[in-house]
Amino acid sequence: MHNIIIAIDGFSSTGKSSFAKLIAARLGILYLDSGAMYRAVTLYALNSGYITADHTIDEAALKADLDAGKVEIAFVRNEETGKYGITLNGADAETRIRQLDISGNVSYIAVIPFVRNFVDNLLHRYGENGCIMDGRDIGTAVFPNADLKIYMTADPAIRAQRRLDEMKAKGETASFEEVLQNVKERDYIDSHRAMNPLRKADDALELDNSHMTFDDQMKWLGGVLKERFGIDF
Ligand code: CDP
Fold it and tell me: Is the minimum distance from the CB of 9 to ligand 1 under 6 angstroms?
């Protein structure tokens, strides 16, 4: 089962990453968060002053740096926890990339084709020998031949509340309206961009978890794994 590739796509805050992490742990496969890669590129661009307040990106400068190898992004295994975290030019970036200023700019960075190619190369390098990967275009573009594709959706207000709860648990402050606006804005940009927009792959299974508990979801997945691969989950 080690070479299995599971692709999970969907809107923000549908719970893709917590679902994927648990599946990875249970199946003993690698979990990779493709959004973290886009977030890390966004962090680099912000730190370099390449993004203006109205989200205009200095694409020429960003491209020059990517081409010159100035942006090193890696998934690095933490030996203590066994978990993988993202680094930008050698420094841990896991916490920083989840903050609201990154969320507010990441979709503008993710529409840029040369950024998508840069991230796709990294994702292939890390994931091609088996993984569960979540994102927006994993089942449609990154791994179109994935063994299993799941497309997750949920009501926007429920997703915003989940994101807000997550932020509060980390001690971050934001209003519900602010988070809901970010969720809706990214939904729109992610599903309307020219290159590899978010959409359900024809062969993906749709999972609307608006009113599902985590347990419900795991049971659903257990049924799928049994039926598709004969795995007792
Ligand atoms: O965690 P959340 O769903 O809010 O977002 P994420 O997975 O961290 O992804 C952040 C952003 O990166 C998304 O809103 C997309 O704009 C972009 N992204 C993408 O374009 N393609 C992917 N495969 C993953 C993320």
Answer: no
